[in-house]
Amino acid sequence: MNQKPGKGSAYGWLFQRITGIFLAFFLILHFQVLHFTKDWKIDFSLVTHRLESTWWVIFYLIFVPAGLFHAFNGAWQVIHDYRPKSGTRKTVKSLFWILGIALSAYGYYLIVTFTKGA
Amino acid sequence: MYESKSGFFKKYVDEVGLNPNVGTWAWLLHRITGVILVLYLFMHFLVLGSSLAGGETFNKWLSVVQNPVFHFLEIGLAAVVAFHLLNGLRITITDFFFVTKAHKAIFWVAMIIFLILMIITLIVFLPRIFSPH
């Protein structure tokens, strides 16, 4: 398998760890707020109320793309272990980037929806 | 890590067979939990997307995923997240601080923290399953 290392693979490795560290902290907070609090019956008003805080909006603006990058880059690493052909590599990579950006945009749209309230 | 061209799942069986050590199991579990989390993320987006149809639709979806069955599954989700998070930190620590030789010891430390987190999770979640709203 004469795979050239290429710049992309090292950046993928690095950013998987950087986003991973972010997500470790973010997910602990996310679980603390949404799964481990006394007020555990979540509804629309609870979410919109939280999104009234600018800090929570900033939190989600980082959380969404960081999570999606980590997810798609991780999925890419799984596929990469099967040593796909050059054409497949390019197709899957492009597809993952498009899906990642599209879902980030969708996530941002949902954040805006929640900040507007009912 | 892997060079053989065997089938989709066989490659994992081969990998564990070739090197049946803690690190390989950690790698395999990290991969399995990672794939589960990617699939969960899509489901998460789907539920959140219902908010576009308004607060009432969103609440309907949320009441579906907040019944005792889903609270039971939530324990599994917490386990998957906790493992992936702790083992991910282990990988990052061994990579960045050049302590590869200690990776097994760090794994067991991570697993002790995992057990503590799961005990806390059970204490919090079991009442939700048996005494729903």
- Kindly provide the radius of gyration of chain B, computed on alpha-carbon positions and rounded to a whole number of angstroms: 19 Å
Named CATH topology of chain A: 3 helical TM bundles of succinate and fumarate reductases
- How far apart the termini of chain B lie comes to 49 Å
Helix content class of chain A = over 70%
Say what oligomer this is: heterodimer
Helix percent of chain B reads over 70%
- For the record, what is the CATH homologous superfamily label of chain A? Fumarate reductase/succinate dehydrogenase, transmembrane subunit
Instruction: Give the termini distance of chain A in whole angstroms.
Output: 55 Å
- The sequence of SSEs of chain A as H and E is HHHH
Bulk shape of chain B: globular
Q: Biggest sheet of chain B, open or closed, and with what strands and sense?
A: none
Q: Give the tally of β-strands of chain B.
A: 0
Detail the poorly predicted runs of chain B: none
Largest interface (CB < 8 Å)? A-B, 36 and 37 residues
Output the number of helix runs of chain A: 4
Query: Would you identify the CATH architecture of chain A?
Result: Up-down Bundle
User: Could you name the ranges of chain A where pLDDT drops below 50 across 5 or more consecutive residues?
Assistant: none
Provide a count of the helices of chain B: 5
